[in-house]
Amino acid sequence: MGYDTALRGYTSKRIEEIESADILVGIPCYYNERTIAHVIQMVTHGLAKHYKDQRSVILIADGGSTDDTREVAKEFEIKPWQEKITSIYRGHPGKGSAFRSLFEAAKRLKVKACMVVDSDLRSITSDWVKYLLEPILEKDYQFVCPVYSRYKYDGTITNNIVYNLTRALYGLRIRQPIGGEFAFVGDLAAYYVEQDVWDTDVARYGIDIWMTTNAITNNLKICQSNLGVKIHDAKDPAESLGPMFRQVVHTLFVLMEQHEAEWKAVKGSRTVPTLGLQKF
């Protein structure tokens, strides 16, 4: 069943109460009771440390976890001048539907910048907030992808398929097109949410490559931000990589067909600026 909105009634009401904000930080989650508190802690500290003068909202978009993920998120105390919403998104179960709810919230709050981080991160620090948001708020970039130092067997789909195809097709050497941590201008969130893709694999694991490819094909000002080391909860490859592989690659080829005219005109490839952490 398709839905006109990914936001439930109580979430919409909270957004109406808040009215507007400068920054929205989205945390999509699903069965992350062990790590969600640490991620929220680093986000709230980072916003307080680097953007205390900006009105900030943290939106936790849960996929219907039956463990204590939402309870932990609700009970975690953030800074008193920040807002936090803990919600269950509506729509197809998947990461993309969580992002859809974040895009809707960003549009309704009229934010200047939106940032998204995974909920299973163990290596996130408060400075990740600065590394992701600074290019948007202070350097006029419109879309920020992450760069990490990762374990050699991590990022299998990225290293073997997604990076190479994105570089070959669109001519940009974006190291982590499906990295999981992004920042983008509020206007881009408004564009994303209006697209008719929420009954496709974009509503699942196809979301990251769809976002990155649309940023490229819309000729946005793109950079990478070095976040240092990425460590997150280990996943069972047999359980998670199969559906992820199918959804990412299918989305990649659908986008290739849609943007044939653009990539046929591309010659060679070029680097994109890398900001953020200067040393690993």
Automatic annotation (TrEMBL):
Cofactor(s) listed: Mg(2+)
Record family assignment = Belongs to the glycosyltransferase 2 family.
Q: List keywords of the entry alphabetically.
A: Glycosyltransferase, Magnesium, Transferase
Does the record bear Magnesium in its keywords?
Answer: yes
Q: Which Gene3D superfamilies match?
A: Spore Coat Polysaccharide Biosynthesis Protein SpsA, Chain A
Native source species: marine sediment metagenome
Name of the protein: Glycosyltransferase 2-like domain-containing protein
Q: Which residues form the Glycosyltransferase 2-like domain?
A: 27-159
Keyword Magnesium among record annotations: yes
Classification via Pfam families: Glycos_transf_2 (PF00535)
Q: Name one GO molecular function term.
A: glycosyltransferase activity
